[in-house]
Design goal:
Layout: E1 6-10, H1 14-28, E2 32-36, H2 39-48, E3 53-57, E4 59-60, E5 63-64, H3 65-75, E6 81-85, H4 91-97, E7 101-104, H5 105-110, H6 113-124, E8 141-147, E9 153-155, H7 157-162, H8 173-178, H9 185-198, E10 202-208, E11 214-225, E12 228-238, H10 240-265, H11 268-284, H12 287-312, E13 321-324, H13 325-333, E14 341-345, E15 350-353, H14 355-371, E16 377-383, E17 400-405, H15 433-444, E18 446-452, E19 458-464
Parallel strand pairs: 1-2, 1-3, 3-6, 6-7, 14-16
Antiparallel strand pairs: 4-5, 8-9, 8-12, 10-11, 11-12, 13-15, 16-17, 17-19, 18-19
Helix pairs in contact: 3-4, 11-12, 13-14, 14-15
């Protein structure tokens, strides 16, 4: 016995349809086959009633069976659709449209059981899935129907799970809207209202929940009879991961834009210096001019190294582990190319961090301290302690560590700019060291602050977010 109880048959050739309908009805054991003769009538019936399968000829008045199937997939992703072709149908067209199975009309005319078997097989693959969409079987995907006349709202179990409800809990329209973030509820409600009142399809991105919201994409497709909307069908899909990927891509693009701006400006300057001095050296054989060329090349190399760090690593870290801050700072100084820096440690401190990225943070801070004051500079590393060696406002008990120097310090009006790419007060600085520090800080989820040390220099604090 064939599984479906109700089949919609779309066929303009009445002579061909008669025997096929008779064969299907005989196999349905009490089920029904409803015959319509064009795609418009088929769309109207699908809007009004529930069917277990659609059988359609490829050749229909004013349209093709594959076009009817493509429309159906927008409103019901899983309703089986069997296509009857009276000639060759491109496999790619049928697959793109969402056709479940394709049969030749000639083969069906010769053996009516072939259509019966195809319908049974197509429905069997969907029998355990909810009629309203693939959401029942696909995580993060749900479907729904909204009756524009009665206001009845039918949902899949997976949609109720997506909304944070138990699968067996009924979900009405008002509750479904209330589940959205307060800032997004009106957009969702308005989209439904326009679909029901004006027959407008909609595609809305909104947040489900308030504390830890997830992004979803809600799509609705109204169906009308005699110009009046009777039903809105749609799907809701979790797009949180997609939004996250888009955000990461935007960040990468921003880094690339920064890279392009620096390449066009910052690298051009030392290249011009090198070119001018090279010409002078060729004319005079002045060794000082050659040294200026070498210095310009060293600056270009430093800029390129910093740019590669910004572009390639960005705000990403590997696995974290407990790290001894003072011990790692001592190791970092040996690879920092900061010959004028002497390190002083105060107290003990451990943080959860990616050791390699934290080493980069220290190296850039040590080079920053080395670039500014003439002569030796002492850099102190220690735990953040509101009661000792600090000028921070009292009452802030966040845990973390600081790096302070006894150099000239950073003026108040410049402290909000220090982490921006290109900021430097050193004549030969690249302007990217502290931007790298900011990226590493963001990647760990820390807060970074710039204040004045007790010796009048710069003090950088890195604090765990509360």
């Amino acid at each position: 016995m064939v599984g479906p109880s109700r089949v919609l048959y779309v066929e303009s050739d009445r002579e061909f349809a008669g025997p096929a309908v008779t064969a299907l009805e005989a196999a349905l054991s009490g089920g029904t086959v409803e015959l319509v003769h064009d795609a418009g009538a088929a769309r109207a019936r699908i809007a009004e009633a529930a069917f277990d399968c659609v059988v359609s000829a490829q050749t229909l008045p004013e349209t093709a069976g594959t076009d009817l199937c493509a429309w159906l997939r927008e409103v019901d992703p899983t309703l089986p659709f069997v296509l009857l072709a009276d000639g060759p149908v491109a496999v790619g067209d049928a697959v793109a449209a969402g056709v479940t199975a394709t049969l030749g009309k000639a083969s069906v005319a010769a053996d009516g059981d072939r259509l019966t078997a195809a319908v049974a097989a197509a429905v069997d693959r969907e029998r355990d899935r909810d009629r309203y969409g693939v959401g029942q079987a696909v995580e993060g995907y749900g479907a729904w129907t909204y009756d524009a006349r009665s206001g009845a709202f039918h949902t899949t179990e997976s949609l109720r799970r997506l909304h944070g409800h138990a699968p067996e809990t009924p979900l009405d329209f008002d509750q479904s809207v209330a589940d959205y973030h307060p800032d997004d509820r009106e957009a969702v409600r308005s989209a439904f209202r326009r679909a029901a009142d004006a027959g407008e399809s909609f595609d809305v991105d909104a947040r489900l929940g308030e504390d830890e919201p997830r992004w979803v994409r809600v799509r609705g497709y109204p169906q009308s009879v005699d110009g009046t909307v009777v039903l809105v069908r749609g799907t809701t899909r979790d797009i949180t991961d997609s939004r996250r990927r888009e955000r990461n891509l935007r960040q990468r693009n921003e880094r690339l834009e920064e890279f392009a701006q620096v390449v066009s400006h910052d690298i051009r300057n030392p290249l011009q210096v090198a070119d001018g001095n090279l010409g002078l050296a060729e004319e005079t054989c002045d060794s000082a001019a050659f040294e200026r060329v070498r210095a310009a090349h060293r600056r270009i190399e430093a800029i390129v190294d910093d740019l590669l760090t910004l572009a390639q690593q960005g705000r990403h870290i590997a696995e974290t582990e407990p790290v001894d801050v003072v011990a790692l700072a001592r190791e970092s100084l040996t690879t920092s190319d900061a010959p004028s820096v002497t390190l002083s440690a105060v107290g003990e401190c451990r943080v959860e961090a990616d050791p390699d990225r934290l080493r980069q943070l220290f190296e850039n801070l040590f080079r920053n301290a080395d670039e500014h004051p003439p002569g030796e500079v002492t850099v102190t590393v220690g735990p953040v302690d509101p009661m000792a060696t600090t000028t921070r406002a009292g009452g802030d008990q966040k845990r973390g560590f600081y790096v302070a120097d006894d150099g000239p310090g950073i003026p108040d009006e410049q402290r909000e700019q220090v982490f921006e790419p290109g900021y430097t007060r050193a004549e030969d600085g690249t302007g990217f060291g502290l931007a790298i520090v900011a990226q590493i800080t963001d990647a760990h989820g820390w807060d970074a602050r710039v204040t004045e040390s007790l010796d009048g220099g710069a003090r950088f604090e890195f604090l765990e977010q509360s």
